[in-house]
Amino acid sequence: MEYQQLITENQRLAVLKFLRDDNDYTQNTSILQDGLTAIGLDISRDKLEMEVSWLAEQGLVEIEHYRTVTVVKLTGRGLDVAEGRARVPGVKRPRPV
Questions:
Q1: What are all long-range contacts of 87-94, with beta carbons under 8 Å and residues at least 24 apart?
Q2: CA-based Rg of the chain, rounded to a whole angstrom?
Q3: 72 contacts 82 by C-beta, under 8 angstroms
Q4: Chain segment 58-72, per-residue pLDDT in tens
Q5: pTM
Q6: What mean pLDDT, rounded, does the chain reach?
Q7: 19 close to 27: Cβ distance less than 8 angstroms
């Protein structure tokens, strides 16, 4: 597997985990971008928007647009993937705690 693919899979899992840890399972992409940068998975806004759209296509998140803000909400399936109960190719499998 290529290095960039490993980073992408880690970024996708991290987004799901950030959403899982939020009280209402929802964040905007600005906060998600800051969170990814804070854990060493720096990502451009364009790439993050692309990855969030990919996660939505897989049924792991739902997206709503409010003017210039993109809001992302975790789905039940996304929660299962974030916690390792389900697997989706293209998303890193979480390690046991």
A1: 88/58, 88/60, 90/8, 90/9, 90/12, 90/54, 90/58, 91/9, 91/12, 91/13, 91/16, 91/55, 91/58, 91/60, 92/6, 92/9, 92/10, 92/12, 92/13, 93/13, 94/13, 94/17
A2: 12
A3: no
A4: 999 999 999 999 999
A5: 0.95
A6: 96
A7: yes
